[in-house]
Amino acid sequence: MKNKYKGGEKLTLTWQVDNDIFKNTKVRVLLSDDFGKTYKHTLANNIDNNGSYEVTLPNINIGNINFGNTAISIPAGIIKIEVIDGLAFALTNYNPKNGGGFIIEKNETLPASLSFTSVPKDITLSCEDTIPAVTMPTVKGGCNPKITYKEEKTNGSCSSKHIIKRIFTVTDDCNQSLTHTQLIKVVDNTAPVFTQPLPQNITIEEGDTVPAQMTLTATDNCGTATVTSSQSEEKTNEKISKIIYKWTAKDSCGNETTHTQKITIKLKNTPEKESKPELLYPNPVADVFYLQGFYHIQEVRVFDASGRLIKIFPEQKIYNISELKTGVYVIFVKGEIYTRKLKLIKK
Q: Is 0.85 surpassed by the pTM of this model?
């Protein structure tokens, strides 16, 4: 870039674009007259991020400015190209060691530069909100400026999401022009709501009739909701002890609400199991021993009196220790939720 320009001069900007990251993105071109503290002037807005664009410099004066707290005077003009809705940007020369920015000398033969004094801001709305009426921007300068606008709608990933672009174009009789694009994003982040009173957790006795899973419906703030249901069970001692009903309400944008009802079944005692106490027999034992009253055994471990592990059995009806020497042993019976320690005497 040059160090000095005239107001109204055209300038072709070029910048590097990583298409793997910034493909199909848009940029705006901004001008600072205070060496990057602020960017009050918009030279172009919502243009393709293709690495090149011609701008017309505003017919204003931009001179020198002191760099920081020093007495070094540098040109104050800097142009920024920033990705809309992104963090990436590019700047024209701003290194004070290389002369700083650039200056613009106002061309008195040209009319006052055309510029916006106010523009409608980008907004984000929920899908149930009313789209606001058009707010026209205001401008200053130029030769009899006229403002027109057009509106474009881009559908989103679901029926309740879309983006409205309001593109404002300003032209005047001196062939100056400005554009500004207002983005109105309509989103749907609200989950559906179940219509009926929700079934609550209950406890019933074994043998009682289990309530059937209810049919639930749901409403959505911006459309319809679909309700799906599922059922699962938990068992204790091979008997169903809990039934879990689940409902999921989902709208077209993927927002969902879930509800779960747990039905706990209070099981009756099993006489056969209660009538048999936990027992290792015979004891003392010659060759084999038996276990009674232990349920869901995972393993049986045999240790000698010094604590050394001698043998491991899986669950079985008869435990053969005929090969062990005479003496005292410790038996550990491990179940799903318990461990028992027993003393055994080998004859």
A: no
